[in-house]
């Protein structure tokens, strides 16, 4: 009797150990963004290596482009190749096949900038200690919503780092038609943004279409200020919700049916701050939006309900709104709408890796920039000297 009892204990202990180890393996999956914020940079460095270390695994066109990059210097008042960003972009040939790094000196560049689809492999990079300010005051009334952006990126393989991207049109009052203005529209595929501050009010960021990655960015707005049909991973990014007399909303994701896998927003290790009260994490502007927040610190600016079907109850049956291990006063789940989900680890995992944006084939670390002295591109031999 005693031997059988001991045997059961031993078998139970073995099973418990196996289950525990299985959970440890899952939680330590090297592809999964870690729950511990202090480990995120190490995770990124381990999973996003320079092009030179990933020969044969990244997109062949990208590998070729990174092999011989060209560097253009923009400086206001002279001393560079150009004094405006627009002129520098115009100098890039149609059908470009090489990485072109446009280093932008400090200052306010009041330009409406567009990078055409025919000019892939462009990088805009500023000085992290004195970030260039790309600014314009376009509105929907003047240009239409998506074309009102200060910076429009239609090309593939775009990179931006260390930039302010701002729409300085007056804050919409909810009465004047067409007062909204976009700061950034990204319509190309395989675009990455590092340490960029994207600032506006209504419709700040048009995450239009394609795979995109945002890391250590700051995005500020009021109503639907991240919207569009892109498939994007936002990592370590602050979402600042400014007070508005209208209902404030962070996302208006535009997926139209549940068969579409090329669209959705995943926010991981982000934080939500601001001056607004009762801001929704998202509202269903289209029938099947897909938005997930994971490991995100949510302040009390977030509405207790969390999400909105946008006065269209039937969309509650087709949308996908999920949260996973978020924290802060705004993350309390007790009053969340019934059509949102607190995700299981299994379901959340697909939103916690670079696989969500197919990033292993195209995402590269940002250039290591030393403005006015030397630019050393990680994974290449390109250099710019004074």
Automatic annotation (TrEMBL):
SUPFAM superfamilies for the chain: Pectin lyase-like
Signal peptide residues on this chain, from the entry's feature table: 1-27
A biological-process GO annotation: pectin catabolic process
Top-level class of the enzyme under EC nomenclature: hydrolase
Domain Pectinesterase catalytic: 73-359
Record-linked InterPro entries: Pectin_lyas_fold, Pectin_lyase_fold/virulence, Pectinesterase_Asp_AS, Pectinesterase_cat
Enzyme Commission number: 3.1.1.11
Domain of life: Eukaryota
GO MF annotation terms: pectinesterase activity
Entry keyword set: Aspartyl esterase, Cell wall, Hydrolase, Secreted, Signal
UniProt pathway: Glycan metabolism; pectin degradation; 2-dehydro-3-deoxy-D-gluconate from pectin: step 1/5
Main localisation: secreted
Pfam families: Pectinesterase
Family to which this protein belongs: Belongs to the pectinesterase family.
Stated name of the protein: Pectinesterase
């Amino acid at each position: 009797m005693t031997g059988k009892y001991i045997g059961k204990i031993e078998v139970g202990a073995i099973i418990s150990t196996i289950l525990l180890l299985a959970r440890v393996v899952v939680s330590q999956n090297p592809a999964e963004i870690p729950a511990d914020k202090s480990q995120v940079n190490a995770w990124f460095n381990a999973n996003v290596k320079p092009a030179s270390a990933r020969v044969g695994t990244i997109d062949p066109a990208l590998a070729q482009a990174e092999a011989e990059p060209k560097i253009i210097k923009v400086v206001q008042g002279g001393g560079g190749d150009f004094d405006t960003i627009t002129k520098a972009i115009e100098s890039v040939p149609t059908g470009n096949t090489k990485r072109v790094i446009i280093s932008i000196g400090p200052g306010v560049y009041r330009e409406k900038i567009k990078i055409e689809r025919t000019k892939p492999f462009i990088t805009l990079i500023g000085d992290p200690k004195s970030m260039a300010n790309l600014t314009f005051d376009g509105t929907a009334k003047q240009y239409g919503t998506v074309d009102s952006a200060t910076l429009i990126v239609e090309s593939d393989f775009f990179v931006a780092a260390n930039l302010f991207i701002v729409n300085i049109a007056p804050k919409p009052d909810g009465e004047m038609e067409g007062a909204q203005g976009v700061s950034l529209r990204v319509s190309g595929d395989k675009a990455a943004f590092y340490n960029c501050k994207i600032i506006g009010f209504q419709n700040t960021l048009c995450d239009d279409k394609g795979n995109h990655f945002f890391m250590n960015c700051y995005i500020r707005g009021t109503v639907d200020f991240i919207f569009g049909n892109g498939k994007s991973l936002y990592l370590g990014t602050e979402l600042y919700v400014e007070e508005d007399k209208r209902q404030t909303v962070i996302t208006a994701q535009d997926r139209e049916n549940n068969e579409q896998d090329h669209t959705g927003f995943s926010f991981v290790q982000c934080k939500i701050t601001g001056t607004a009260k009762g801001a929704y994490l998202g509202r269903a502007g289209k029938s099947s939006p897909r938005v997930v927040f994971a490991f995100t610190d949510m302040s009390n600016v977030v509405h207790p309900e969390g999400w909105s079907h946008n006065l269209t109850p039937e969309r509650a049956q087709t949308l996908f709104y999920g949260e996973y291990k978020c924290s802060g006063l705004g993350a309390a789940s007790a009053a969340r709408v019934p059509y949102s989900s607190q995700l299981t680890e299994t379901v959340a995992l697909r939103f916690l890796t670079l696989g969500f944006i197919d990033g292993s084939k195209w995402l590269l670390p940002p250039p290591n920039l030393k403005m006015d002295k030397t630019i050393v591109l990680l994974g290449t031999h390109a250099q710019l000297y004074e």
